[in-house]
Design brief:
Blueprint lengths: L2 E7 L3 H17 L5 E7 L16 E5 L11 E4 L8 H9 L5 E3 L6 H13 L7 H11 L6 H5 L4 H11 L5 H9 L4 H4 L3 H24 L1 E3 L2 E5 L12 H5 L5 E7 L4 E7 L11 H6 L4 E2 L3 E6 L4 H17 L3
Parallel strand pairs: 1-2, 1-3, 3-4, 4-5, 7-8
Antiparallel strand pairs: 6-7, 8-9, 9-11, 10-11
Helix pairs in contact: 1-3, 1-4, 1-7, 3-4, 6-9
Length: 321
């Protein structure tokens, strides 16, 4: 039996949707009896690829950084900051491999996998069109308004809330198999999802007021620090609902595994948004996309995270707008 180790971006709707899409694609086009093992990956201040992780006959990475391990057989990613080192980037350019796909022009890894699987391997992605659509909307920040991004009335946005913020570890990995086959309205009714949804919706409503109180909006940039609260998985569109005039947001949050500086761009106020946030984050060991990025620090280094965040706020406030 083929053993597949599938590593995906944990606590991320696009990462989880990418894993579900790959799971169904591989079973339908390669091996229906493959034994899958899922590993959620988190961006941290240390090297993410641990010895012994790639223990499958097939080792797959979706929506996460490149690994130069010869054991990796599939890779899909769309982040500007996909490579840990210039040597990794050069290694990929020289030896991309037949199943290694990197296209940073895509707004979501889910859409990248769907297009690649359909065009190169004849996979029928039509049964998953709703999941693929929402992967692109959520990760690509393509909601029509800030209100629609924050109200969380769609099953997809409710599922994204649970995936990103459930206090129980490992929820995304536990729902991948069902996400590959069940419609999104059924997914939010699963006991493992439903038990978290109510409390998280209430937490979401409280977080709007917390960000209203703590946000410092000036010169087109919003800054807030919620590192003393359990709010790492806050809805990233709330700042733009509260301050639609602002172009960028910078925040500091914390969890048991990292201190985090988040950088974002207002999707509904892009006229003067000419800063590449991934490039800014890369200066401090972080990365992401042009419009959204993050920097991870050791949990004990919260003071450094705050210092870096304040510095980035000043850079963006001085930027032409």
């Amino acid at each position: 039996m083929t053993r597949v180790r599938l590593c995906f971006h944990d606590r991320c709707f696009d990462g989880t949707a990418s894993a579900a899409l790959f799971y169904r694609f591989y079973r339908e086009r390669f091996d229906a009896n493959a034994e899958f093992h899922f590993t959620g990956m988190t961006h941290r201040a240390v090297q993410p690829w641990e010895d012994g992780l790639f223990d499958g006959n097939e080792n797959v990475i979706v929506d996460f950084k490149y690994s130069n391990s010869l054991k990796v057989t599939w890779w899909f990613d769309h982040h500007q900051s996909a490579f840990l080192t210039p040597a990794d980037a050069e290694n990929f350019r020289r030896n991309p491999g037949p199943h290694m796909f990197y296209k940073p022009e895509y707004k979501s890894c889910t859409m990248l996998i769907a297009d690649t699987a359909r065009e190169k391997f004849g996979f029928n992605s039509e049964p998953l069109k709703d999941l693929i659509h929402w992967g692109d909307i959520i990760d690509g920040a393509q909601f029509p308004t800030a209100e629609s991004a924050v109200e969380l009335v769609e099953p997809a946005t409710q599922l994204a809330l649970v995936i990103e913020a459930a206090p129980e570890d490992g929820v995304p990995a536990k729902i991948i198999r069902e996400l590959a086959y069940k419609p999104l309205p059924e997914m939010v009714k699963l006991p493992i999802v439903a038990k978290h949804l109510g409390p998280l919706l209430e937490r979401h409503r409280r977080s709007i007021e917390i960000l209203r109180e703590r946000g410092e909006a000036r010169d087109g940039v919003i800054f807030f620090d919620v590192s003393d609260l359990d709010l790492e998985g806050y809805n990233k569109f709330i700042p733009y609902l509260l301050h639609p005039e602002c172009v960028y947001s910078i925040s500091v949050s914390a969890s048991a595994v990292r201190a985090k500086v988040s950088l974002g761009t207002n999707p509904w106020n892009l006229a003067t948004a000419d800063q590449n946030l991934a490039s800014l984050a890369e200066k401090y060991g972080g990365g992401g996309h042009q419009r959204v990025a993050a920097i991870s620090f050791d949990p004990s280094d919260i003071a450094r995270a705050r210092e870096v965040a304040r510095g980035l706020v000043e850079v963006l406030r001085k930027a032409p707008k």
